[in-house]
């Protein structure tokens, strides 16, 4: 765009949108094809002082069309499979993550009001409310993408929106092996753990792939089992026939109608579930999750933010303490009884995501829970780093053998070597 009277593209779009809206109102409801023709005619007839080159014209036509039929400038970004996350810092500043790297985008919203309108449309689809008195909310898009919104006065940068996209085809365990997240041996081990009904907790930092991994693990749940999932914002894509999905809800503007995680976990216990899967525990609901794992719901799973498997145990203790004033020794015993295995994920410097540790809870020593690594990401004799099996033996061998797993651990390795020598 050039010329002394040039105006920002946002003003152009706003002006043309009003013309298109007037044409639609005059002609009644129209289909997508007719809307596109109306948009193109309106842009072609536009006689402003700004001349648009062909690429700018095409971008403007798409933006105007998506403002009526989609999510405005976000629509092409959401359809771009190479983008995994979209970050909006006010209406003029957009960023996207591609292949683990964050880059600025040329796109921007025509005005703050337009972005705010879009935010209200998004939260209305999932029956949520966000405004100045309640400026923070989690939501989701129709395709399952997770949306986190922060409005002023909590945000000093204007409306801030973060959209976490998920693959149209969720990554299965084989896909995680192919991309180097874990080894085939570890993947087979985890599949058997899930079938055997081990209670598994997944830990990791932000963006480490906890939800993706939870989805992949769930594919090993037997079809005959009834599963209840509980999430703040429904993201899990389980493929289980007998599945119940529950989602929390914030209070309305009158402070009523809230459905907290703790209430949903308690409700799920009356639904006769074989397994309960909590997308992520962040607070007092950890106490209810552990109670569910301790009351016959073998094979339950959850995830949480932590820098290591050991840190995850400390965080669980803190969360349970927030829910009830119990002795620390009692809380640790409850965690030990409830959780069998912790899988820790991390995002590496090269932006890849890997399993760094698969550890079992091996008892209490010196008053603290002892973690025993079964697999650990480390360098081998050849200098190459990968997820390697340790010599530790699996303690809950009863569950493991009922699921048809071969003996696991140092003794099984020795037996295998003896068989190989005999051959």
TrEMBL record:
KW Hydrolase (keyword) present: yes
Keywords, sorted A to Z: Hydrolase
Residue ranges, annotated region (Disordered): 397-423
InterPro entries (UniProt xref): P-loop_NTPase, T2SS/T4SS_dom, T4SS_GSP_E_ATPase
Name this polypeptide is given: Type II/IV secretion system ATP hydrolase TadA/VirB11/CpaF, TadA subfamily
Residue ranges constituting the Bacterial type II secretion system protein E domain according to the UniProt record: 72-353
Family matches, as CDD domains: VirB11-like_ATPase
Protein family according to the UniProt entry: Belongs to the GSP E family.
Any one Gene Ontology molecular-function term assigned to this protein's record: ATP hydrolysis activity
Keyword Repressor: no
């Amino acid at each position: 765009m050039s010329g002394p009277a040039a105006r920002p593209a946002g003003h152009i779009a706003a002006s043309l949108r009003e013309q298109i809206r007037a044409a639609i109102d005059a002609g009644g409801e129209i289909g997508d094809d007719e809307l596109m023709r109306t948009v193109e005619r309106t842009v072609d007839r536009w006689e402003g002082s700004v001349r648009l080159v062909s690429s700018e014209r095409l971008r403007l036509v798409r933006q105007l069309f998506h403002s009526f039929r989609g999510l405005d400038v976000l629509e092409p970004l959401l359809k771009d499979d190479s983008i995994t996350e979209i970050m909006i810092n006010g209406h003029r500043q957009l960023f996207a993550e591609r292949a683990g790297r964050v880059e600025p985008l040329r796109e921007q919203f025509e005005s703050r009001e337009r972005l705010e309108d879009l935010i209200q449309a998004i939260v209305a689809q999932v029956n949520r409310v966000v405004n100045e008195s309640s400026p923070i909310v989690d939501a989701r898009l129709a395709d399952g993408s997770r949306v986190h919104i922060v409005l002023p006065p909590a945000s000093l940068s204007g409306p801030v929106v973060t959209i976490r996209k998920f693959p149209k085809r969720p990554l299965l365990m084989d896909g995680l092996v192919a991309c180097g997240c874990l080894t085939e041996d570890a993947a087979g081990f985890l599949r058997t753990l899930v079938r055997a009904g081990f209670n598994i907790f997944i830990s990791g930092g932000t963006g480490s792939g906890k939800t993706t991994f939870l989805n992949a693990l769930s594919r090993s749940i037997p079809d005959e089992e009834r599963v209840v999932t509980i999430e703040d914002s429904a993201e899990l894509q389980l493929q289980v026939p007998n599945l119940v999905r529950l989602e929390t809800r914030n209070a309305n503007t009158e402070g009523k109608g809230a459905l907290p995680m703790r209430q949903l976990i308690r409700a799920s216990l009356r639904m006769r579930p074989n397994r309960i899967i909590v997308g992520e525990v962040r607070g007092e609901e950890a106490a209810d999750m552990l109670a569910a794992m301790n009351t016959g719901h073998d094979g339950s799973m959850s995830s949480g933010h932590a820098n290591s498997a050991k840190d995850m145990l400390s965080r669980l203790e803190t969360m349970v303490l927030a829910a009830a004033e119990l002795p620390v020794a009692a809380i640790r015993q409850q965690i030990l009884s409830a959780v069998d295995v912790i899988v820790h994920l991390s995002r590496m410097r090269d932006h890849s995501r890997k399993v760094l540790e698969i550890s079992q809870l091996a008892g209490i020593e010196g008053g603290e829970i002892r973690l025993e690594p079964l697999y650990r990401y480390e360098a081998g004799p050849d200098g190459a780093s990968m997820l390697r099996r340790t010599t530790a033996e699996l303690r809950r061998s009863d569950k493991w053998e009922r699921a048809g797993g071969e003996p696991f651990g140092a003794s099984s390795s020795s037996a295998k070597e003896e068989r190989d020598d005999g051959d």
